[in-house]
């Protein structure tokens, strides 16, 4: 029997993307299909989605969804069904996907629509389970929980991709949400006197997942739980850590069209052409020394302030840096200043460019990810797949996916990268020194690259675990 799941999120690759959330939401339908799960994805009707999706048809209308007119459009995303919440008053606007004054209304509308669709409000659409992703969809399980008690139950899963982003708003918005009065309570959406979108989802969903086992444990602690650690601890029996996967159809150095030269673990010499291309694009001196890359938001969470402090030493040791990212203005300025100090050794591109991110993975020698916390992380998985050796903090999914090149791991032939302890100058600088020393031993470096490239970080196992969880919640197991 096929299990029908409605997956609701604020973005999905390849239609619209600001980060790893989109990659996960876009990859899940393929990962679940072999396990008897049919996934329909619901996303907002941003202008970019309207341009990318063709052949839509209207399957439902709302005269007032959060006080605006809205339509539900049916389409396809690859081989799978797609639903688009077409509400121009909420989503057809300039600027980024997030950061608008009425974000609470925009994503409450998405959540309410998701709950109604999962609950059977649209003829011809039937779902066994609703899967909500991050705070933007966090109210969907709450709308399911607090709807008419006579309605048939629908199971729900709430996935936390990053608990730091919670969707907290003042209590004054509650009357507009259309939830019953008893939903504004500690076992509902109330959070420190206001409304918590993610908190509401975590409180009301039948199961909670995070994107790595280590992160699932970390968020039960005050340091990582961002104020929600008590709730997570109280529901620990319903919390599951499932590592994200990557899509080998998109991230594969043997077939990637963004690379100057495609290669395999047996033909690592072909990476050289990609390295030359990275040097040219970032204004780096041509050479055989290691190129480190950063593909990241430039924020405190990502440890970028500490990396800036380490750049003079990285260059002094013979390393170079190619950075692609954007974020906090002071950090952007600090990286530009480092590039000015070290012309030809540090190159900085502010922004995000999907093909360029592929080229960096295929041409740089190592990728730096010194995050203070990292729920899962995908860039280290891309690095492993492309032979771009990860240098990571020992936290969250980074700790779960990169095997440190310590003596025991090297002796066993299983090391894939370098881990360091709590993010700080000395720990990160030491990891960089270890990596540069290993790079000076070509046979050892090639072994690290090949070990990473041979690891299986596809969605096969993670898809099975999600499917098993769905089936346990719906009685289909």
TrEMBL record:
<comment type="function">
    <text>Synthesizes alpha-1,4-glucan chains using ADP-glucose.</text>
</comment>
<dbReference type="Pfam" id="PF08323">
    <property type="entry name" value="Glyco_transf_5"/>
</dbReference>
<comment type="similarity">
    <text>Belongs to the glycosyltransferase 1 family. Bacterial/plant glycogen synthase subfamily.</text>
</comment>
<feature type="domain" description="Glycosyl transferase family 1">
    <location>
        <begin position="287"/>
        <end position="410"/>
    </location>
</feature>
<keyword id="KW-0808">Transferase</keyword>
<keyword id="KW-0328">Glycosyltransferase</keyword>
<dbReference type="GO" id="GO:0004373">
    <property type="term" value="F:alpha-1,4-glucan glucosyltransferase (UDP-glucose donor) activity"/>
</dbReference>
<feature type="domain" description="Starch synthase catalytic">
    <location>
        <begin position="4"/>
        <end position="233"/>
    </location>
</feature>
<dbReference type="GO" id="GO:0009011">
    <property type="term" value="F:alpha-1,4-glucan glucosyltransferase (ADP-glucose donor) activity"/>
</dbReference>
<dbReference type="GO" id="GO:0005829">
    <property type="term" value="C:cytosol"/>
</dbReference>
<keyword id="KW-0320">Glycogen biosynthesis</keyword>
<dbReference type="Pfam" id="PF00534">
    <property type="entry name" value="Glycos_transf_1"/>
</dbReference>
<dbReference type="InterPro" id="IPR011835">
    <property type="entry name" value="GS/SS"/>
</dbReference>
<protein>
    <recommendedName>
        <fullName>Glycogen synthase</fullName>
        <ecNumber>2.4.1.21</ecNumber>
    </recommendedName>
</protein>
<comment type="pathway">
    <text>Glycan biosynthesis; glycogen biosynthesis.</text>
</comment>
<dbReference type="GO" id="GO:0005978">
    <property type="term" value="P:glycogen biosynthetic process"/>
</dbReference>
<feature type="binding site">
    <location>
        <position position="17"/>
    </location>
    <ligand>
        <name>ADP-alpha-D-glucose</name>
    </ligand>
</feature>
<dbReference type="InterPro" id="IPR013534">
    <property type="entry name" value="Starch_synth_cat_dom"/>
</dbReference>
<dbReference type="InterPro" id="IPR001296">
    <property type="entry name" value="Glyco_trans_1"/>
</dbReference>
């Amino acid at each position: 029997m096929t299990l029908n799941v409605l997956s609701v999120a604020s973005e999905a690759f390849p239609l619209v993307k600001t980060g790893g959330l989109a990659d996960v939401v876009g990859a899940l339908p393929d990962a679940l299909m072999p396990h008897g799960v049919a996934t329909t994805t619901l996303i907002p009707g941003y202008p970019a989605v309207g341009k990318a999706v063709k052949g839509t048809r209207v399957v439902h209308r709302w005269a007032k969804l959060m006080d605006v007119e809205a339509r539900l459009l049916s389409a396809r995303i690859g081989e799978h069904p797609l639903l688009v919440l077409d509400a121009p008053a909420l989503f057809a606007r300039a600027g980024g996907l997030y950061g608008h004054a009425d974000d609470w209304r925009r994503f409450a509308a998405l959540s309410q629509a998701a709950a109604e669709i999962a609950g059977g409000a649209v003829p011809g659409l039937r779902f066994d389970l609703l899967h909500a992703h991050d705070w933007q969809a966090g109210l969907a399980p709450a709308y399911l929980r607090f709807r008419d008690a006579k309605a048939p139950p629908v199971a729900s899963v709430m996935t936390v991709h990053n608990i730091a982003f919670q969707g907290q708003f003042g209590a004054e918005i509650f009357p507009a949400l259309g939830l019953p009065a008893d939903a504004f309570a500690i076992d509902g959406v109330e959070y420190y006197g206001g409304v918590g979108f993610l908190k509401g989802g975590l409180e009301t969903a039948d199961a909670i997942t995070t994107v790595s086992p280590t992160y699932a444990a970390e968020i039960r602690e005050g340091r990582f739980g961002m104020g929600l650690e008590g709730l997570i601890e109280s529901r620990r029996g319903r919390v599951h850590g499932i590592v994200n996967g990557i899509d080998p159809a998109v991230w594969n150095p043997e077939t990637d069209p963004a690379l100057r030269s495609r290669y395999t673990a047996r033909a690592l010499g072909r990476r050289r052409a990609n390295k030359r291309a990275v040097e040219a694009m970032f204004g780096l001196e041509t050479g055989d020394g290691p190129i480190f890359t950063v593909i990241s938001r430039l924020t405190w969470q990502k440890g970028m302030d500490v990396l800036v402090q380490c750049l003079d030493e990285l260059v002094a040791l013979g390393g170079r840096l190619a950075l692609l990212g954007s974020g906090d203005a002071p950090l952007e300025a600090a990286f530009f200043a480092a590039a000015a100090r070290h012309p030809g050794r540090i190159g900085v591109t502010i922004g995000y460019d999907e093909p360029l991110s592929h080229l960096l993975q295929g041409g740089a020698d190592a990728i730096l990810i010194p995050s203070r916390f990292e729920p899962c992380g995908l860039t280290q998985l891309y690095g492993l797949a492309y032979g771009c050796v990860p240098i990571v903090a020992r936290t969250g999914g980074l700790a779960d996916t990169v095997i440190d090149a310590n003596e025991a791991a090297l002796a066993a032939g299983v090391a894939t990268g370098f881990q360091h302890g709590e993010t700080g100058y000395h720990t990160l600088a030491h990891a960089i020194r270890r990596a540069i020393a290993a790079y000076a031993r070509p046979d050892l470096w090639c072994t690290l690259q090949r070990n990473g490239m041979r690891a299986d970080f596809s969605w096969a196992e993670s898809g099975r675990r999600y499917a098993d969880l769905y089936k346990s919640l719906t009685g289909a197991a």
